[in-house]
Structures are given as C-alpha cells and as structure tokens.
Amino acid sequence: MTNTNNGIGNRYKLPNGCEIVIRKMTIADLEEVHKLECQIYPDPWTFSHFCHEVMENKVSYTLVMELETKVIGFAVTWFIQDELHLANIAIDPQYRNLGLASLFMNVIFEEGLKRKLIRAFLEVREKNLAAINLYKKFGFEEIGVRRKYYRNGENAIVMQRYLPHTHDSNFEVASF
Ligand SMILES: CC(C)(COP(=O)(O)OP(=O)(O)OC[C@H]1O[C@@H](n2cnc3c(N)ncnc32)[C@H](O)[C@@H]1OP(=O)(O)O)[C@@H](O)C(=O)NCCC(=O)NCCS
C-alpha cells in the first residue's frame, strides 16, 4: 500500500493496482453517501443527519473513500475533548474484505494521534460480527452493553481502546 497526498486527499494504491482516495466528505457527496447508507443499514441515518455532520457539527470528522470518483465508503467520527467516538463506518458491499475499513481506521487513528486524544469509544450491534472483529483487530475491547439501543430493539456493545501514546509507544497502524 503506497500513500501520497496531493492536497485534495490521500491517495492509496491497493496491491491490485487500483488507486483509492480518502478525503473529507463535502455537501456534494451527500447524495451518494446517503444512498450507500440506505443500501447498507436497516435503519439508516437520514439525509439531514449527514448534512448536520458535514455542515454544522463542529466535533465531526467526516471522510469518504473514492474509487475512480465513485464513493465506496464513508466514516463519521466525533472528536469530543480528548475522546474519539466512531459514529459510523461503512464500505460498499462490493468492496469488502479488501482492507478498506482498516485503511479508514488507520486514517482516523492517525488524526486522533495528531490531536493527542486519549480514548476511543464506539457502539456496535451485538450481532455485527464483521464490525466487532474489525474493532478488535484495532485493539478495542468490550466494556459494556447498552440494552435495546437500536430501533429494532437490538443491544449495542460498547467498545473502548486507549490511543497508543497513552499506553503503548510501539503502536503501529495495521498493514495491508
Ligand atoms: C464492518 C465493515 C466496515 C468492514 O469493512 P471491510 O472493508 O470489509 O473490512 P476490512 O477488509 O478492513 O477487514 C478488517 C477486519 O474486519 C473483520 N471482518 C471484516 N469482514 C468480516 C466478516 N465478513 N466476518 C468476520 N470478520 C470480518 C476481520 O477481522 C478483518 O480482518 P482480517 O482481514 O485480518 O481477517 C463492513 O463489513 C461494512 O461496511 N459493514 C456494514 C456497515 C457496518 O456494519 N458498519 C459498522 C457499524 S458499527
């Protein structure tokens, strides 16, 4: 995986030669992002929720991933004081298991490190094994359960990890 920055976003070359771009989400992306959200989740965020994240929410760090100008993933993170809260991360089903969510996680954690954040939190559906495994791969541990957290009554697992500079100076982002 190679990484270059052209000022618009970071470009990454995948082992198969495809180039993807990770950059800040803009208003122009919202239609595509919301379409993907609706395709992925049974209870999707609304269009105006994404608008709020991009336009108004001062603590929101919103990213998209593009392949040849097509949005194939997005991530919404909140940086609140010294904590990072991963609010949403999703990859187009056609492009899963290629390490793309891991790439997002690396970019988010690098930003968290730059901002000298201390802890990272998230909630995840208890049956979402793909996401739970992804988070465990990035050092998250289960710290509790929020009962009936989701609209369909499903429980949320709360997961946490400390950022490396607080505990582990040998932290390295995952490789692909
Ligand atoms: C969860 C999700 C973001 C993972 O995206 P991805 O790009 O396929 O993930 P990666 O290829 O980077 O995989 C990273 C790790 O996640 C885990 N993982 C990914 N897909 C998995 C699956 N289908 N089953 C089990 N574990 C899986 C593995 O531990 C994997 O590491 P490995 O490749 O070393 O085994 C993707 O499945 C998705 O968009 N799901 C729907 C949205 C969602 O549930 N988001 C999380 C909300 S909390």
Which oligomeric state applies? single chain
Spatial strand arrangement across the major sheet: 1-2-3-4-5-6-7-9-8
CATH topology: Aminopeptidase
The succession of helices and strands, N to C, reads EEEHHEEEHEHEEH
Name the shape in a single word: globular
What is the average of the pLDDT values?
A: 90
Q: What number of domains?
A: 1
Percentage of residues in strands: 35-45%
Give a list of the ligands: coenzyme A
Contiguous helical run count: 5
What would CATH call the homologous superfamily? Gcn5-related N-acetyltransferase (GNAT)
Radius of gyration: 16 Å
Strand runs, count = 9
Q: What top-tier CATH class fits best?
A: Alpha Beta
**Unreliable runs, pLDDT <50, ≥5 residues?**
167-176
Helix content: 25-40%
Judged by helices, strands and strand pairing, the structural class is alpha+beta
The largest pleated sheet is described as: 9 strands, mixed
Structure overview:
The chain has helices spanning 30-40, 47-55, 100-114, 129-137, 164-167; strands at 2-5, 10-13, 19-24, 60-67, 70-80, 83-91, 119-125, 141-146, 156-162. The chain has five helices and nine strands. Residues 167-176 have low confidence and may be disordered. 27% of the residues lie in helices and 35% in strands. The chain has 176 residues and is an alpha+beta fold. It has a single domain (2-167), classed as Gcn5-related N-acetyltransferase (GNAT) (Aminopeptidase, 3-Layer(aba) Sandwich). The relative contact order is 0.13. The structure holds coenzyme A. Residues 40, 89-91, 96-102, 124, 128-131, 133-134, 137 line the site of coenzyme A. Coenzyme A binds at residues 40, 89-91, 96-102, 124, 128-131, 133-134, 137.
